[in-house]
Amino acid sequence: MQWNETIKLFRGGMPLRRHWANFRCYDCTFAGSEAVDYLHELLRSNYNFGPEVTRYQTLQLLRKFFKAHVIEDVKGRHGTEDFEDNSHLYRFPTMSPLKSLPTRPSWRDDSDLPRLIRWDDYEELPQKENVAPQKSAVLNSDLWNKRHSVAIGDVHECKLIRRREVTSKQVDHIWKSMTVTHLQRVLGLKTLDGILSPAHVNGKDIVVNIFSVNKTGIVVLENKAEDMPYWVISAMKCLANWPEGNDAKQPLYPGFERDVLRTVADYYQKLKEPLLTFRLYEVFVNILSLLQEQDKATEALQVSCLLLPPPNRRRLQLLLRLMARVCHNPRLPPLNDTIATRTLMVQMFSHCVLGSPDDMDLDELLATKLVTFMMERHGAIFQVNAKLRCQVEEHLSHLKRAQIKYAGSDTDFSASPAFCKQIKRVDCEEQKVIGTQIPLQQLLEGLIADQELPAKDKRKRLKQPCMGLQPLGKTALLAYMPAVGGCGAPAL
Question: What residues form the membrane-spanning segments (predicted)?
Answer without folding.
Answer: none
